[in-house]
Write a structure and sequence with these properties.
The chain has 10 helices and 18 strands. It is an alpha+beta fold and 375 residues long. It has 2 domains: 2-181 and 291-373, Zn peptidases (Aminopeptidase), CATH 3.40.630; 183-287, Alpha-Beta Plaits. It has a 6-stranded mixed sheet with strand order 1-2-6-3-7-16, sandwiched between helices. Strands 4-5-18-17 form a 4-stranded antiparallel sheet. A 4-stranded antiparallel sheet has the order 11-13-9-14, covered by helices on one side. The radius of gyration is 24 Å and the shape is elongated. This is M20 family metallopeptidase.
């Protein structure tokens, strides 16, 4: 089956790359709602033209609508996840080829993955392949800013799914993603007492002094062996140099691999003791994505993908990566999840984002083969 699928995609290579160019040139960063709507129209048109299915649009109040289509029948379902928004401002990257590299906004992250999913569905139809279950394809438009308008839809569709496959790009060396870190943000506000720095220094309570002590303790929570990083990225305080500062604040970014580690960091920061007598503190927690842990189900999916890859002449391993995706929330539900099943490229979120041209067709065949091989 792998060779049959690979031949089909190679026979249609020109059309596939034509569709990819069409979608990549429909530029849209998450914040540009008008451009995002136009990109969505192109995506919907490609689904109709290539699969014959009528896409369903979930309209969201904030304008970041989701697009869904389905293929196959049966009580069991697989969820195929992708996003059509990018981080790039319009015109930031010229669509071009240089050797084996295809450059363009979102070409790797992750419009190539969307085209992979659409052409997988087309291949099944044209080759008369029954996937043996219901395939639910869901593409959102706000992944790059946290999927706040779409996560409920995606998680709802993931309920009772056999597995979820995420068409984000693979790692730069070709590996798939079996785990992703979760993230939390903390906004800490310190309250002190203002006084004259010369005449009444003793009467003041220095909020910046307390902030400095806390920053040192919080930075020390980083544990590289556990895969936990804690970073104070913003801090501010005070009004004038001759005034004991009455207020200070700082923000913390934390990335962690396990739910246990996330709870440890929350507890340590919330319960941090005051160092400067009389000072007080408030902590706001901004929850991000839960970690996509390397569960048994996730690793079994990777094993199946590796075997499909072997039959296609592909060799790759797996990695636990730092950035999150929509696979995090689905995996946290207990749904076996495998990420990195889109194109092979590098430079995501930069002006040098590219897709490896020679490796794109085999990666589509990998996705199409894996869907049929999941038991």
């Amino acid at each position: 089956m792998e060779e049959r699928l690979l031949k089909y995609f190679r026979d249609h290579e020109a059309e596939i790359f034509g569709d990819l160019e069409r979608l990549v040139k429909a530029e849209a960063s998450t914040s540009d709602l008008e451009a995002l709507a136009e990109t969505r129209k192109v995506l919907e048109a490609l689904i109709r033209e290539r699969t014959g299915e009528e896409p369903l649009v979930y309209e969201r109040e904030g304008g970041h609508d989701l697009v869904r289509f389905e293929l196959g029948q049966g009580e069991e379902k697989l969820l195929i996840i992708g996003h059509y928004d990018t981080v790039h401002l319009i015109g930031a990257i010229q669509y071009r080829t240089e050797g084996d590299r295809l450059y363009g906004p979102g070409v790797s992250d992750m419009k190539s993955g969307l085209i992979s999913a659409i052409w997988t569905a087309r291949a099944y139809k044209e080759l008369g392949i029954d996937p043996g279950r219901k395939l639910v394809f869901i593409f959102n438009g706000d992944e790059e800013t946290g999927s706040h308008e779409s996560s409920d839809i995606i998680c709802g569709l993931a309920e009772n799914a056999r597995a979820a496959l995420v068409c984000e790009p693979c790692v730069g060396n070709g590996d798939l993603k079996t785990g992703r870190k979760g993230n939390i943000k903390f906004n800490v506000t310190i309250h002190g007492k203002a006084s004259h720095a010369g005449n009444a220094h003793k009467e003041g309570i220095n909020a910046i002094q307390e902030m400095a002590a806390e920053i040192l303790k919080i930075q020390a929570l980083t544990d590289y062996e556990a895969g936990t990083t804690v970073n104070v990225g913003i801090c501010q305080g005070g009004t004038k140099v001759n005034v004991v500062p009455a207020a200070a604040s700082f923000s913390v970014d934390c990335r962690y691999k396990s739910m246990e580690e996330g709870q440890r960091i929350r507890r340590e920061i919330l319960e941090l003791p005051i160092s400067v007598p009389g000072a007080s503190r408030e902590v706001e927690i901004v929850e991000g994505k839960l970690p996509m842990e390397e569960t048994q189900g996730n690793m079994e999916l990777f094993a199946a993908a590796k075997e499909c890859g072997r039959k296609l002449g592909l060799s790759f391993s797996h990695q636990f990566v730092g950035g999150g995706s929509d696979g995090n929330a689905v995996s946290a539900m207990g749904i076996p999840t495998l990420d990195g099943l889109g194109g092979w490229g590098d430079g995501a979120h930069s002006e040098s984002e590219y897709l490896r041209i020679s490796q794109y067709i085999p990666r589509i065949a990998l996705l199409a083969s894996l869907i049929l091989d999941i038991r």
